[in-house]
Amino acid sequence: MEPVSAEHVTTLRRFNRYFTRRIGALDDHYLGQDRPLGEARLLFEIGDGVSLRELRVRLGLDAGYLSRMARALEAQGLVRITVHPKDTRQRVAELTPAGQVEVKEQNRRANHLAEGLLRGLTPPQRGQLTEALGSAQRLLRLAAISVDVVDGAAPDARACLDAYAADIDERFPEGFDPASLVRPHEVSGDTGAFLVAYEEARPVGCGALRRLEAGVGEIRHVWVHPDARRLGLARRLLDELERQATERGYEIVRLDTHASLTEAQAMYRACGYAEIPRYDANVYAAYWFEKRLAR
């Protein structure tokens, strides 16, 4: 992976400073209400009710800090904290009627602030900004996703494969038999690898590498959760699988794909894979590809 340039770091930090100041994130009375941004955001995220555990993961907050904020909001009569009906180890936060009123007012003020910012632009400029912000959000989501090597038998690995199998079973006209999935021992250790992509501790993608023959690895089951598609995550998984192959001494990687997976075919070609004759007996494959890895 190439190093990040100082220019890119400086530009991102400059934008962060400008934007947080412009929307009033530094003010203890965010949006003119009697609370800082952290508490305002927590009220918004609680919405119709959510466990403190989920809030901690979603917002990336320290458990103690989250608990203190939740208790402060409870003391103000805006939040009610109860024990989860199905799990006594969990606590659930929900808005009181007063909390619902405050969130409604918070949304009104936030919309007013956004409208005020956009009012100074022409309609084409608003469209340009909206498109740029959408691109920025997608790229920041992708940047925040981690891709980890896990054991092929790990629960997250098997859960991703189950989701992959269910997904393509719906897409393939002939269906899909999960018995065709890779075995844990094939994608673990010195000869193989299983990757899981995590977004906020939730698995959102996977990919597998196994040994095909001497000097040749095979990439299997590159999958991205529907919620994380169109971010560029599939390419990132593919890049990491190629890196794992290089680390294991493979000079060539191969893969196959179904005729209906046109987006996968386009991605493989765009990433330097050349179509080759059939190399396996996979009944679901219609196209076979190969790429020679740089050493």
TrEMBL record:
<dbReference type="InterPro" id="IPR000182">
    <property type="entry name" value="GNAT_dom"/>
</dbReference>
<dbReference type="GO" id="GO:0016747">
    <property type="term" value="F:acyltransferase activity, transferring groups other than amino-acyl groups"/>
</dbReference>
<protein>
    <submittedName>
        <fullName>Bifunctional helix-turn-helix transcriptional regulator/GNAT family N-acetyltransferase</fullName>
    </submittedName>
</protein>
<keyword id="KW-0012">Acyltransferase</keyword>
<dbReference type="InterPro" id="IPR000835">
    <property type="entry name" value="HTH_MarR-typ"/>
</dbReference>
<dbReference type="InterPro" id="IPR016181">
    <property type="entry name" value="Acyl_CoA_acyltransferase"/>
</dbReference>
<dbReference type="Pfam" id="PF12802">
    <property type="entry name" value="MarR_2"/>
</dbReference>
<dbReference type="InterPro" id="IPR050832">
    <property type="entry name" value="Bact_Acetyltransf"/>
</dbReference>
<dbReference type="InterPro" id="IPR036388">
    <property type="entry name" value="WH-like_DNA-bd_sf"/>
</dbReference>
<feature type="domain" description="N-acetyltransferase">
    <location>
        <begin position="147"/>
        <end position="294"/>
    </location>
</feature>
<dbReference type="Pfam" id="PF00583">
    <property type="entry name" value="Acetyltransf_1"/>
</dbReference>
<dbReference type="InterPro" id="IPR036390">
    <property type="entry name" value="WH_DNA-bd_sf"/>
</dbReference>
<keyword id="KW-0808">Transferase</keyword>
<dbReference type="GO" id="GO:0003700">
    <property type="term" value="F:DNA-binding transcription factor activity"/>
</dbReference>
